[in-house]
């Protein structure tokens, strides 16, 4: 990953666009090398919550730090804070292009990260439902279920106003449509249709 030619990089990038999830094994990278490689995908954006950022490399989000209690047991409240199935950063007005993970300490069993294709989720919908979803948008609030429904509508409860995104997105590079829903942040009851422009 440190010295990919442009041709090799383009092949890797195309494989990621086509396959959605890309696993590159056997890499040992410094933080600087990981960031340099990551920038080839696009501009990096630090996490909204400052305390999750690496102190020297704010574009890196530290995950798993502080997951153990003083007695050595895993603090499940921290370990499970991803909330199950979710999309990264939907509460940001700028949709996340992708997320990269670099494993430092990997458990011998468990701890699996699972992925689901929202392309496939959209493609499998009946045409009648696709039509109903067309033009709908939903609000996404930081905090989601953990802050109850009030965080969806009040910037005072979450600290940030919700972001509004289409429920069905068209990828700007592949042209494929996908669902953009997130059970931990979406305020589905507030989805609405955008008036169609005429003339």
Describe what you observe in this structure.
With 199 residues, the protein is α+β, with helices and mostly antiparallel strands. 24% of the residues lie in helices and 12% in strands. The chain is built from seven helices and five strands; from the N terminus they run H-H-H-H-H-E-H-H-E-E-E-E. The strands form two sheets. Strands 2-1-5 form a three-stranded antiparallel beta sheet, with no helix packed on it. Strands 3-4 form a two-stranded antiparallel sheet. It is globular and about 50 Å long. Mean pLDDT is 80; it is low at 144-151 and 189-199.
Helix segment tally: 7
How do the helices and strands follow one another from N- to C-terminus? HHHHHEHHEEEE
Structural class label: alpha+beta
First and last CA, distance: 50 Å
Number of strands: 5
- Poorly predicted residue ranges: 144-151, 189-199
- Main sheet strand line-up: 2-1-5
Rounded mean pLDDT score: 80
Proportion of beta-strand residues: 5-15%
Q: Helix fraction? A: 10-25%
Write down the oligomeric state.
single chain
Estimate the global geometry from the Cα principal axes: globular
- Rg calc: 19 Å
| Major beta sheet summary | 3 strands, antiparallel
């Amino acid at each position: 990953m440190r010295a990919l030619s442009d041709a090799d990089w383009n092949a890797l990038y195309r494989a990621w666009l086509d396959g959605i999830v890309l696993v590159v094994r056997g890499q040992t990278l410094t933080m600087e090398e990981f960031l340099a490689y990551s920038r080839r995908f696009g501009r990096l954006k630090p996490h909204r919550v400052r305390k999750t950022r690496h102190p020297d490399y704010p574009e890196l989000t530290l995950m798993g730090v502080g997951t153990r209690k003083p007695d050595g047991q895993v603090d499940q409240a921290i370990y499970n804070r991803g909330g199950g199935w979710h999309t990264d950063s939907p509460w940001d007005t700028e949709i996340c292009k992708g997320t990269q993970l670099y494993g430092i300490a990997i458990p011998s069993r468990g701890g699996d990260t699972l992925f689901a294709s929202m392309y496939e989720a959209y493609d499998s919908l009946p045409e009648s439902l696709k039509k109903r979803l067309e033009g709908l948008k939903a609000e996404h609030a930081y905090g989601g279920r953990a802050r109850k429904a009030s965080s969806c509508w009040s910037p005072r409860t979450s600290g940030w106003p919700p972001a509004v995104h289409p429920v069905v997105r068209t990828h700007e590079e592949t042209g494929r449509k996908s669902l953009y829903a997130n059970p931990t942040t979406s305020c589905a009851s507030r989805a609405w249709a955008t008036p169609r422009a005429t003339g």
